[in-house]
Amino acid sequence: MNPVMIAMAGGTMLALALVMAWILGWANRKFHVETDARVAAIEAVLPGANCGGCGYVGCSEYAEAVVRGEAAPDLCTVGGEATAREVAAIMGVEVEQRWAYRPAVHCGATYDDRLQRSEYHGEQTCAAANLVAGVQGCTYGCLGFGDCVRACDFDAIHIIDGLAVVDYEKCVGCGACARACPRNIISMIPFKSERMLIVACSNKDSGKDVRAVCKVGCIGCGVCHRTAADLFSVKDHLSQIDYDQYDPEKMDAAKLAVRKCPMRRLVFVGKPSEKDIAETAGEEAPAVATADFKTTVDRTGWRG
């Protein structure tokens, strides 16, 4: 090949490289956006789980929202109180006391406890079964096909004997299970202590109708309210707990209500302390929980 042509080709490539380098340098200066150093600092203290529990797509988006003043510094459910304090320190603010939120399952009925069940051969998901009438008599109960399990990135919820059960040792409170449940029978409640009292039923029907579809459902007898009126109320035939009035240090009346409940739907969930274990030694405890009391009927128009 002609040496002159080779030199010309090389010179042309060098010239193009220099021009492109100049253009890129100009574009970098022209379109450069200043980044607040606090964003990187907050990202560094966040756990990086990108679970969405804070309400943002990921930790980076949450960090930016905090710096813009659009989000509170204590929304990271995975990092908890320690991370909230670090984020607040970076922002130069104080963080108010905020309870960690953890999921409570609004049903305590295993397969054997559910009446009027029929075989379901459709898509094996709660979302699909939720649209089919007659899968089980209770229109409020856990369907047990594991949509919540598949939504959890932390292996913190499992289906045991047809019932969703939370592993509180692994749970970070991201809320993915609550969002995945088509019947809204999982809600996030404030854990003011390692063990929290909840109502293990969501059925709003009358006691007679509840007994027709479930062996263990709340019948709305009101004994809990009569025992601890400041904490319990009965609405739509269903016991409810006022967590604003919940004081872990003043639970004598509440524990008496637990013992008096004829259907044993008032249960403690969470991480038991040695004292909790000693106090409940020999007792047969129900499996799961309740709190927010929204059901399929609240979000769809079918019954079945």
How does this structure look, described?
This protein is of the alpha+beta class. It folds into two domains: about 35-95, 3-methyladenine DNA Glycosylase II, Chain A, domain 3; about 100-300, Alpha-Beta Plaits (2-Layer Sandwich). It is built from twelve helices and eight strands. It has helices at about 5-30, 35-45, 60-65, 80-90, 125-130, 145-150, 175-180, 205-215, 225, 250-260, 275-280, 295-300, and strands spanning about 100-105, 155-160, 165, 185-190, 195-200, 230-235, 240, 265-270. Helix 2 (about 35-45) crosses helix 3 and helix 2 runs antiparallel to helix 4 (about 80-90). It is elongated. The protein starts with a helix and ends in a 5-residue tail after the last helix.
Number of strands: 8
Give the C-alpha Rg.
27 Å
How far do the termini sit from each other?
Answer: 82 Å
CATH class of the largest domain: Alpha Beta
Question: Which structural class is indicated by helix and strand composition?
Answer: alpha+beta
CATH architecture of the largest domain: 2-Layer Sandwich
Helix content: 25-40%
